[in-house]
């Protein structure tokens, strides 16, 4: 992808983030995401979030696989981003009171 295409793409992503920030409540958020994404895409995202919550509780991969239907490769990727990513998972887990105290 050329530099201008990447810049335009990042601007579009930024615009999406800005739109999400304008949502005022759970109802608006639910309607927006249902219009934006397919049921399958929403399910995929919600299962990734479920995996992150299970990983922070130190639930074994096999149990996570059984409960979520996610592959060990996907679980491993989520675990990587949970511990070495940009901090987004940990930020939200903390705000929701799901992070373990150390």
Automatic annotation (TrEMBL):
GO terms for molecular function: DNA-binding transcription factor activity; sequence-specific DNA binding. Coiled coil: none annotated. This is TrpR, YerC/YecD. It comes from Candidatus Berkelbacteria bacterium RIFCSPHIGHO2_12_FULL_36_9.
């Amino acid at each position: 992808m050329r530099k201008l295409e990447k810049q335009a793409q990042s601007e579009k992503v930024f615009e999406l983030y800005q739109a999400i920030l304008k949502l005022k409540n759970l109802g608006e958020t639910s309607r927006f995401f249902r219009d934006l994404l397919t049921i399958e895409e929403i399910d995929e995202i919600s299962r990734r979030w479920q995996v992150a919550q299970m990983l922070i509780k130190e639930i074994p991969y096999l149990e996570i696989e059984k409960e979520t239907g996610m592959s060990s490769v996907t679980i491993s990727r989520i675990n990587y981003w949970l511990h070495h990513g940009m901090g987004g998972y940990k930020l939200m887990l903390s705000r929701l009171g799901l992070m373990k105290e150390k």
